[in-house]
Amino acid sequence: MPHGNAIRSVYLEAEDMPVDYHRDALALWQQRKGDRIGPSFREMPLLDFPPDVIPLISVTDITADPLTSRYRFWGTALTKAFGGDYTGKTPADVPPKSLGMNINGGCARLAKFLKPDYEVKEFIRHNNLFGRALVLRLPLSADGVNISNGMNIFYFETVESDQPLSIFFEEVLKTGANRRFQ
Question: For position 52, what pLDDT does the model report?
Answer without folding.
Answer: 94
